[in-house]
Amino acid sequence: MDMTKRVQQFFKAYVNEGLEKMEDPVIMVKQYMRDVKAEMKRMTQLIEKKQELSEMLRMDAEQLKETIAKREKQAKIALENGDEELAKRLLSNKHDAYEQQNRYNALFERNEEQLVEQKAELEQLLLKYQKLKERKLDLLLRTEAVESKRHVEQLEKQGIRRSQIQEDPFERWEERITEMERHQGKTHKHETLQVNQLVMDELEQLKAELNEKKM
């Protein structure tokens, strides 16, 4: 089965079966992405070889074209010199070169046609790969949303409210520390008042003692 049919079957299954019935859609998409990427690499290498072959055929055909012109010129010179036998051999060689040139040209044209088809197929693979990347992102987001919802529902079943899940624990700690500081402040103020009262009492006692001495 070629890559195009495999990808088409995957998307058909995706549409028909639905996300919830697929064991692991993200892993499946990643696997198809790897398959498409491998096929793209294989196709790219094949195209490079085809291009090398086209260049080789083109150069060989050009050389044969030069050979044909050269043999024709040599045959004319041979006839001018009265060497008809040599002229025949040169013209025969020219004919062989001409037939070989036609074969190379035919191979070149067929190879170029295949190149066009393979480049078009590679372009389709590139488009499919891009679509798979977009599909993977979509599935990741949807899967994360499903997992998040499932996690919250599980916690709620265990008696943990959503507000408790979203509550910032630092806020609770700050409230407790603030309350402790407030309580500490009240205690310190009360102790300060007690000390001040003791000082005033002692001051009054000293005043009384001084007054007694004066009398």
Automatic annotation (TrEMBL):
<dbReference type="InterPro" id="IPR007157">
    <property type="entry name" value="PspA_VIPP1"/>
</dbReference>
<comment type="similarity">
    <text>Belongs to the PspA/Vipp/IM30 family.</text>
</comment>
<protein>
    <recommendedName>
        <fullName>Phage shock protein A</fullName>
    </recommendedName>
</protein>
<feature type="coiled-coil region">
    <location>
        <begin position="33"/>
        <end position="81"/>
    </location>
</feature>
<dbReference type="Pfam" id="PF04012">
    <property type="entry name" value="PspA_IM30"/>
</dbReference>
<feature type="coiled-coil region">
    <location>
        <begin position="105"/>
        <end position="142"/>
    </location>
</feature>
<keyword id="KW-0175">Coiled coil</keyword>
